[in-house]
């Protein structure tokens, strides 16, 4: 059976290099205020930096984060749908386009912005040469002060697969039938639903908890063989 690992930032590497990024994606779906459950919410971890919304006449409507009622959210979501991979969930707060902002200091082969994974272009090439599948590096629009800044790419890591129902507390309210929100915190001991996990990707997010980045054993082994700093691995149960 395949082995899967929860991928996190090694913060000691950030401390060693001192790099810092302050940036956000160019466009995003608004948050949502649901008339059914009463929640005002946005998802985190649904980022598609490869998607260019500048071709949309209405692209300026995706610049300012704000909550919208269901009817307006649906209108904006359907404008975007033709430009994203088929089957993309597109919850409130889904982001598009390159990360734009400022970057200072030095960076190793791998860096992080929250749960977003950044890679030097040469490190991405080496991972792909090792046979790691499904890695898509997307340009960023960082403003550096130093000369000869590094080329940092954002990896587009799509939400696929789910947490197993057994690790979600039984007292969590059911998913809202109108907006789809299922409000629960990250389980203390996450378990992956094995049948839901992609077989063709070595790096992905958990579909129903997208701040969690998951790597396969192939990804972990490649990172270790190449001595790429910046990532920790914690093995998870899948059943």
Task: Explain what the structure shows.
By secondary structure, the chain is an alpha/beta fold. It folds into 3 domains: 4-11 and 158-238, no CATH class; 22-96, no CATH class; 106-155, no CATH class. The chain is 15% helix and 32% strand. It contains 4 helices and 16 strands. The chain has helices spanning 11-17, 70-80, 121-129, 217-225; strands at residues 4-9, 20-28, 31-33, 40-41, 47-48, 67-69, 95-104, 110-113, 116-120, 137-138, 141-144, 152-155, 191-192, 203-206, 209-216, 231-238. The strands form 4 sheets. It has a 5-stranded mixed beta sheet. Strands 2, 5, 7 and 11 form a 4-stranded mixed beta sheet that branches. A 4-stranded antiparallel beta sheet has the order 8-9-12-10. Strand 8 and strand 9 (116-120) form a beta hairpin. The mean pLDDT is 95.
Order of helices and strands: EHEEEEEHEEEHEEEEEEHE
Measure the end-to-end span.
Answer: 10 Å
Structural class: alpha/beta
Coarse morphology: globular
**Percent of residues in helices:** 10-25%
The residue ranges in which pLDDT falls below 50 over 5 or more consecutive positions are none
Strand order of the largest sheet: 13-16-1-15-14
Give the number of helices.
4
Write down the overall mean pLDDT.
Answer: 95
Radius of gyration: 18 Å
Count of strand segments: 16
